[in-house]
Amino acid sequence: MSISSETLGDTAEPAAARPRRRSRVAAWPLWASIAGAFGFAGTIVFDVRPAAETAAWLKGEDYTVTTADILGLEVLAGRLGWMSGLFAVAALLVFAGVWHHHVESRFASTGARIVTAGVIASAGSLLLGYGWKGALANYLGPEMGVYDEQGLFVYYMLTDFGAYLPWFGVLVASFAVVWMAFAERLVSRVLGTISGVFGLGLGTLMLVSGVPGIPGTLIQGWLVVLGIWLAVGRSRITRPTAEQAR
Asked: How far is residue 209's CA from residue 214's CA, in Å, rounded to a whole number?
């Protein structure tokens, strides 16, 4: 039995005309996770402290840092912290850009605009914080001798909170995501709850303890969660547009 070309034309659909199955994973939010991971490394993992101060802290004792402690600081840890911090700043700026493209340009959201502002504020000030960390490592390493202990101590004091304070902008962004979840219904309410726990917890601890650098201890973890949740979860802001869905 022969099959006519007309029958084949009716039953065989060209491969190009078949709708392509799109991945449910949105890759662009992962820039937040990358920023959080590098930020945690630059601020916490490679935090540079005098060995004597660390030993006293582990024993639960007080210790007064003086200029005599500065020359013993780890140069490699400081350099790695600076490098990780630069990657974090770059990732924050990229995330701000893709967030603007995929969210701000599509939705009339006050919360989305606050997220962008908070991320950019943190990125700009973190560039200084991590820059001071890199400068101290440089003056303790290749350019050792340019400044005496008192001059290096000034740089050390700048790094004490320099990589912690600027994360306050991201803390504000976490509250903006809470608003987007419960007021604007643009992201998952579970994500909004997680954001509220991070933001309220760190913000309250900062105000009660009086330690300005508290946001920089854990808010990077929120960025990691935010990026992964938006990438694999279901939120209005990550749904493709009608043109993209074709």
From this structure: 9
